[in-house]
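Illustration 12: Transport permease protein.
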Amino acid sequence: MTAIASTPPARSTAPERRAPGALRSGIAAIGIELRSYVRTPDTVFFGFLFPVLMLGIFGVAFGGNGDIGELPDGSGGVNMAAYYLPGMVAAGALLTGMQTLAIDIAHEKSSGWLRRLGGTSLSPVSYFLGKAGLVLVTSAAQLVLLLAFAVVVLRVALPSDPALWSRFAWVYLLGLLTMTLLGIALSALPRSGKTATAVVIPIVLLLQFISGVYLQFSMLPEWLQNVAGVFPLKWLAQGMRSVFLPDHFAALEASGAWDLGLVALNLGVWLAVGLVLSLLTFRWQRKS
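Figure caption equivalent — predicted structure in token form:
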């Protein structure tokens, strides 16, 4: 008997196609989100340029009032642009994180875009990586523009101590992540895309007015300071003031100190709240 040699099946030389991973899809989603962002002028104005414009208005309108916060010997004062800069940095994180995502996701739900995405292979992880990347890139660009405008146009002196910039990094990143998660959670509140702006913007404006962004926090009534202390923007603005203002300005805070431990604690608590609410409320399609 002759042995019949069996030949193994030929392997295809074509490259094996694999579904893109969540990270790769998320990175691709960032580019899509950025292109969509720059094509919406109202979002760019009210989210990206608004803090820069407000800093310019406050710096010019109140610039003639002289320096504030001077010590008895006449030193240590800052002009109004320098005083408002920390609040505008905090407001920028609020607008690019919470406001932009809350309105954007609400519109995507209402238009059926999320329902269509839910029927594809795109995972929620990739979707939210795209949103988080959008917030990170736009907020970084906004921050650079805001600081450059403050220095070049309004003659604001930035801190020179590296320790202050290290403090700025953790406060800003923690605050930005908190605002991002709260924006995702807040997107569940509007009943439709048409009402998203009317629901979200008043909330964001109210938080800015009571949290020491547009008004000096120490001038607010004590009960209103206590209300603002419940929300994260007050703590983010306080952390920013500890970076950009001289140390003796801490006496104007409610406790007479910067309380950086409480800043981290409160932002961390709201980060956890935003994460839990996002997980509980996010759906590819709004429930009827």
